[in-house]
Amino acid sequence: MSDELRDLYQEVILDHSRKPRNFGEPTGANRHAQGTNPLCGDRATVHLLVDGDVVKDAGFVGSGCSISTASASMMTESIKGHSMADAGRLAEAFKAVMTANASPDLLAEAEELQSLQGVKRFPVRVKCALLPWTALTEAMELYRQRR
Ligand code: ZN
Fold first, then answer.
1. How far, in Å, is the centroid of ligand 1 from the Cα of 8?
2. What are phi and psi of 75, to 5 degrees?
3. Gap between the Cα atoms of 87 and 83, Å rounded
4. Residue 116 CB-half CA count within 13 A
5. Which residues, in sequence order, are bridge partners of residue 36?
6. What is the CATH number of the domain that holds 120?
7. In a 10 Å sphere around its CB, with 0-12 CB exposed, 13-18 middle and 19+ buried, how is residue 101 labelled?
8. What are the residues whose beta carbon lies below 5 Å from ligand 1 (ion)?
9. Which of 36, 51, 98, 131 is the least crowded, having the fewest Cβ atoms under 10 Å away?
10. CA distance 46 to 31
11. Distance between CA atoms of residues 18 and 56, nearest Å
12. Number of domains the chain is built from
């Protein structure tokens, strides 16, 4: 990774952690799941407003480090308005990129998420980045079980 790219990624992460998008519980949210990362002290609850098969709105609350906050912010941005299937695929892709050396091209549709791949150099922080995604997956699975 070039220095320029690394700087750019750093800026994207800082921007999202300082001004988290979709912070809060959207009105009418009907799916919720909480995640914690004891290693870092991160806590995040993901709230979804699911209508039919579409994630109409998404938000999160909690407190965490800049990585978990930025990841939650970018995640909610990239799943809002998408189908549950798309959100599930994106979650799988993000986990694969962060933990299994999958190509970052998998995240081409949600480009900002690629900024988090630099976190892979710090294995302990990967858990921070994955925390909101694990909560998202849980919220969607609970949804499936109830149908
Ligand atoms: Zn953290």
1. 20
2. -60, -50
3. 6
4. 33
5. 43
6. 3.90.1010.10
7. exposed
8. 40, 42, 65, 68, 128
9. 51
10. 8
11. 25
12. 1
Structural domain span for residue 38? 3-146
* Residue 82 CB contacts under 8 Å (≥ 6 apart), including other chains: 54, 55, 90
Distance 53 CA to ligand 1 centre (A): 31
Residue whose C-alpha is closest to residue 88's, from 98, 78, 103: 78
Q: Which two tokens stand for residue 141?
A: 């699975």
Query: pLDDT per position in the chain (147 positions), as tens?
Result: 788 888 889 999 999 999 999 999 999 999 999 999 999 999 999 999 999 999 999 999 999 999 999 999 999 999 999 999 999 999 999 999 999 989 999 998 899 999 999 899 888 899 999 999 999 999 998 766 655
Cβ pair 33, 46 in contact under 8 A: yes
Structure tokens, 79: 């799943």
43 C-alpha to center of ligand 1: Å?
Answer: 9
